[in-house]
């Protein structure tokens, strides 16, 4: 399929060939017929992409600080590599989509194949969209009209926050597309609407819709104009839909408001607010969040959990439906706002000079003959019919930043890369000379040429994908964790015992040259190990914290250090106890100390902390054994005390990953990737589960 993408690195907007997405549970797969270009938002993204690195930095000073902090802790070159990899990631454009449903995912009940719908899907021939971001289109509305649904809901949410009543005077600052839609909906609400903009064409359109509109460039002072049209009372409410860096707009909004007036920001402006202007009138100021309640809430958007209507009357989906009702009833007329309808293949007529575009609304038209194709050939290449052909499942940060760079130069033959939407997978296929990009995992399983399946998806998908790959007789590498619960682990064990394939988990710390050196110096004698991970806080809404998706950070990441302790001690874990920060710590805690007993008498402590300074090293290891002490700092430097003939080791940060993946490729060519004893893998996984269980029970948990 074809999709419009934007490069933040080069500034190029392209029509890319991508595999079609597969419908997910709770989502609907839509064949697009029309989509609307949000000229304000998309112009900003395109122009940001075209800016130089220095200009990009000036526009995002908060990101610059994050980069500087990362340089302090991880070094210059790894940070530069991270920044450039981020810039290389293509950005799908668009969020105003109309089409017909061609498939429904598991759990979807409100939609069926053939329904005509509006959604926040992108500029692509096919999109898979969560059901709470999709709305039915009334029969009397054309596809072009329905394309205004989502962008109209942005203005509608701003109106809901201002909470206008019939007869009130509301000012709309900025009469671009969102501003015009907002103003017309306010008129339909029975308000007196005043609007202003610097474009005469938009002023004329606004006047035709019953709005008192003016251009300040023609001599009208905005504050005086509003006061004169309200008998010097001032506006009851102001909705700012403009996009400008100046602080003048927020000051004007305050000056033209009546006492106890309401101001809502929908656009993007300077916010250096004068306290006196707001204090004297006791003004209310609020920033509107996109389409309405539910936005950026994963429970609502991706899990389909709706807010109860009696308590949250207007969600983003119900705002979509309201806009469609207004268009259907003739209360919101949008046809006159359409400047052009352009076929998808001629997208450059819109994006080629978008910075200077005078259009109000541009519509993209799609072919009715679009075909669902879940796989595309990215690089025509002949693969050697020997061991070592890989199917890579997952195209996220780990694959991009760690796995593929580490495989570079190893003669790895990657035939397929699987990604859920096709965008990231195709970009990585181009960069790393991978033959095919697909959204179909079954294609990899059924390909008899594929020897090894490498799985780097979100954690909740690991177990099912591992069992299916083992059942097909494939060798499997899966990024940690192996499973999220005992049931998944038992299913994997059952498949493994029947399979001819081997299994490896991505525990990479044991492959570091630092770990290998420490191991050679202490042997298998009983030892005390203290491993500290200064993991840093991540927002609570990130998927890793979700116990059903990520399993929490202890199962999802601290497991690395349980494996490290097993490797260094040469013994399996037999008991675990975890203490977490706080009086009543949650199951998904990310501040905990995990105590482990090993079968050979060794002890280990894993300190996994998220409340430390990011300027401090992320990882530290201390090993005490036979009157020797070894201190490893961030896998960059290891110091030895009481270790005759050894004092210090320094290496680059990524050596461990390269050692790990290089070994995997070599072993695959030999027909075996069981680099870690299988019972160790299972033991470490059980120890991760036991750590969480011990938190609940407050005691040591024996490992089977």
The CATH class of the largest domain is Alpha Beta
Low-confidence stretches: none
Distance between the termini: 50 Å
Task: Count the domains.
Answer: 4
Q: Please state the second-level CATH architecture of the largest domain.
A: 2-Layer Sandwich
Largest sheet, in brief, is: 9 strands, mixed
What level of helicity do the residues show? 25-40%
The secondary-structure class comes to: alpha/beta
Tell me the β content: 15-25%
Number of strands: 32
GO molecular function: nucleotide binding; oxidoreductase activity
Protein name: Putative dehydrogenase
Domain Enoyl reductase (ER): 59-265
Describe this structure in words.
It holds the Pfam family ADH_zinc_N. It comes from Kordia periserrulae. InterPro entries: ADH-like_C, ADH-like_N, ER, Gfo/Idh/MocA-like_OxRdtase_N, Gfo/Idh/MocA_Oxidoreductases, GFO_IDH_MocA-like_dom, GroES-like_sf, NAD(P)-bd_dom_sf. GO terms for molecular function: nucleotide binding; oxidoreductase activity. This protein is an alpha/beta fold. Helix content is 34%, strand content 24%. It has 4 domains: 2-146 and 333-365, Quinone Oxidoreductase, Chain A, domain 1; 167-287, Rossmann fold, CATH 3.40.50; 375-505, Rossmann fold (3-Layer(aba) Sandwich), CATH 3.40.50.720; 509-702, Dihydrodipicolinate Reductase, domain 2. It is built from 23 helices and 32 strands.
